[in-house]
Write a structure and sequence with these properties.
mainly alpha, single chain, about 350 residues, ABC transporter involved in vitamin B12 uptake, BtuC, about 0% strand
């Protein structure tokens, strides 16, 4: 069922005071879902600011390669974190799952397994954690923030136990090639992140499943009433998110030549920040994959620029917080304006 039909049926099942809201929300929902995020303007603004205040080093090709390479790991995680949030969920465990994916894949590679088996093993661990999260959230009624906060601590503990608190390495060249080599001067990791983002984009923006995900996040009970299998769909989102986080961790292990249980600390907040900065609504139903990618790039640009400006590293989180609040505020203003415009058009159509 398409999103317009879904939302229309949702409005029919709601009280009268919610019908107008649902009819008003539909056109605005579609425009917000497909419109560019204010994060692009913020990214350009930062680029101009650094260009005016920094030496030519910021504009060098190698600096931008480093920016996009560092943003690649956040991009892989943030795109699927955004999808979970759009679907009405929340996953705080991705940082620990990132570490688990790095440790498990490194352990397999260190003991002679092929790169394919090592990456697949690490990714499957993340998918398993996502499956656990999804089942507990959907069948036991425990809030996602509690469940995924619990797995954040539990999975990190298991990663430390498995590795005995030490990095696993050095890893064979066959495994580290994808993390340390490049093609035409661009690291393989950037190509991989771009491919993951394209897959996520097609899933969310070019399929009926993507519109069902938005409907799930907009109104779970109404989505169920029109035939969407909300529990399996929600579980699938958590599985994909966990798999993406673990896969990104395996890539980080390949880049560093070792898998450490300390990897991914704070990544859950960075990924959520990238998604929200990119226009994803924490309330669910709204968001874009390009926005999440731009959010990840923006955070990488911000961090690199502060380093080049010799700003105290302890202030980087402060700067991230300021940008997050600013981007969220701009996005809220943009949405409210769109909803007001849609309301006026709906009233005008009814009067005629």
């Amino acid at each position: 069922m398409s999103l317009p039909e879904t939302v229309t049926n949702m409005s029919r099942s709601q009280p009268p005071d919610r019908v107008a809201e649902g009819e008003t929300r539909l056109p605005a929902l579609r425009r917000v879902a497909l419109s560019p995020s204010p994060v692009l303007a913020l990214t350009i603004g930062l680029f101009v600011l650094y260009g005016l205040t920094q030496t030519s080093s910021f504009g060098s090709g190698q600096v931008w390669i480093n920016i996009f390479r560092d943003a690649s790991f956040t991009t892989i995680v943030a795109t699927f974190v955004a999808i979970v949030i759009i679907g009405g969920g929340l996953d705080l465990s991705v940082g620990s799952v990132f570490a688990a994916g790095a440790v498990v894949s490194a352990e397999l590679a260190y003991h002679g397994q092929s790169p394919f088996v090592a990456f697949a093993g690490g990714t499957m661990v993340g998918a398993g954690v996502g499956l656990f999260n999804g089942i507990i959230v959907n069948y036991f009624g425990i809030p996602a923030i509690i469940v995924t906060l619990g797995t954040l601590f539990g999975v990190r503990s298991l990663a430390v136990h498995l590795s005995q608190g030490q990095p696993i390495g050095p890893l064979p060249t066959s495994f580290t090639t994808i993390g340390q080599h490049d093609f035409l001067g661009v690291p393989y990791i950037i190509y991989v992140a771009l491919a993951v983002a394209i897959v996520a984009y097609l899933l969310l923006h070019a399929t009926t499943l993507g519109w069902n995900i938005r409907a799930l996040g907009a109104n779970r009970e109404a989505a169920r009433s029109v035939g969407i299998r909300v529990r399996p769909l929600s579980i699938c989102l958590y599985v994909c998110c966990g798999a993406a986080a673990a896969f990104a961790g395996a890539l980080q292990a390949a880049r560093l030549g070792a898998g450490s249980p300390a990897l991914g600390a704070g990544l859950e907040l960075t990924a959520i920040a990238a998604a929200i900065i990119g226009g994803t609504s924490i309330a669910g139903g709204l968001g874009t994959i390009p926005g999440a990618v731009l959010g990840a790039v923006l955070l990488s640009v911000l961090g690199t620029g502060l380093i080049l400006l010799h700003v105290d590293s302890t202030l980087e989180d402060l700067a991230t917080g300021v940008v997050l609040v600013l981007a969220a505020g701009l996005d809220q203003l943009r949405r409210r304006q769109m909803f007001r415009t849609s309301a006026r058009r709906a009233r005008a159509a009814e009067s005629t």
